[in-house]
Amino acid sequence: MAETRVAIAGLGAIGREVARRLASGIPRLALACVAARDQAKAQGFLDREGIGCPIVPLDVLPDHADLAVECAPAALLEPICRPMLRAGKQVVVLSCGALLPRTDLAELAKAHGGRIIVPTGALLGLDAVAAAAEGTIHSVRMTTRKPPSGLAGAPYLVANRIAVDGLNEAKRVFSGTAREAAAGFPANVNVVAALALAGIGPDRTMIDIWADPAVTRNCHTIEVDADSARFTLSIENVPSDNPKTGRIVALSVVATLRKLHAPLRVGT
User: Fold this and answer.
1) CATH assignment of 4-121+248-259?
2) How far is CA 129 from the centre of its chain?
């Protein structure tokens, strides 16, 4: 049976872990190439891990791979997605907040037979939200609490001169829609964009973001009220080497990739 050739775009904390897992072996998947801003650093990582694959520019990913995993800053979403989708390939998107203002990417995928896949990532319950959306969802609200270091430098905080350093108690730094949060916190709350895409959209999905010095994990709670169910789900994610994202994100990517050819697939 044919293998799916996988490219990894970005070798930060998530990309490195996905690369390790692929190199260790997942049935019918092969790590074909990587793309990285700092090629010397990327080559050093590949050499240390004993991973033999080329480092290539983003625009030639379709020449090497059937599927690309986007593990890069949100600003690079289009340079990663467009060549792959235009070639009828697949892209696993982690910076899904950047998808919200770029609905044309889904149209590009449709026109060329490509596909955008958004994994569950750091949030649980997307299956339940997607199922409820087949009926009527009345409201979706999310509350995120992160250590201040996990929010530091977010464009919304910088623009509004909101300081999170040296906090002695929890501080709500944002309250609004998923669309607004994705724009103001592009590296911090991609989870709410995934929630919005699974449910009632970015303008009806609401979120409160707290900088909380009392927590050491990235904590998310979602509350959904629908005609089929009412549910509340909470998760506390251990931060990765990058405090803005959790360790479970890379594992979610691996689980998504494993499902591509699994003889038994659990969950929608």
Assistant:
1) 3.40.50.720
2) 17
